Amino acid sequence: MWHCGKAYHMNILLMSVASTFILLLTFAAYIKKIVTREGAMATALFGLIINFTGGFIYILILMLFITVAYIATMYQFSLKKAIGIQEGSGGERGWQSVTSHVLVPTILIVMYYTLHAISTPLFEILILSAFAFAISDAVASEMGVISNKTYSIITWKKVDTGVNGGISLFGEVWALLGSLFITLSGSIIMNISGMTLYTWYYPVILSSVSGFIGCNIDSILGDLVENRGFISKFSNNFLSMIASIFIAYGAYIIMMR
Question: Where would you tag: which of 3, 61, 146, 222 has the fewest CB atoms within 10 A of its CB?
Fold first, then answer.
């Protein structure tokens, strides 16, 4: 009984320390203008929910995403700002951008740890697919706009840099690399934590490919729907992430037959 009580208090202590770390990190991100005030509040909210339901391992994956996305955002930022295609006024991301990329992973974590509605192998693939799309989309957008060889994903005609639905070989390569990086890193973190029960290369392959495909679905929706004003950029991000996890789910079902 005493050991159970000690373990309980230890868990509370660890979650409290992690929560304090999340709040300090979010505040630092706001001070450094990585996120706006509303973006910082959204990040803190999702971070706390993830911490208290899934644990700190997902905060580490989230931190990797934020770090890589910020580096990509700041890459040749002066050029992006000069042609008016930068994120925010100084590269910072608002609450809508944060929500469109973090809401789905948060829901998946709650479904797995609180509702127990997903099996462990499937959860691992879906959560990594969600993060794979998030980083693939962010890196493709921020790196792709550097290229002056941008083409419509629908018509393959040359389009202006930064146009919704425009893709470049440079951006596509970075999208795939970003997807592979976050899935491999996430899988390693999960393995170290002792959570992973599945052969490591399945989630890496399925999730990275699903995230990359979702990134291109984002471009398709951008060309066909977003440019016509039917959905916003952030609605597009959200829907494309949903598409990514459904692709991963379908591949998982086929693989398990």
Answer: 3
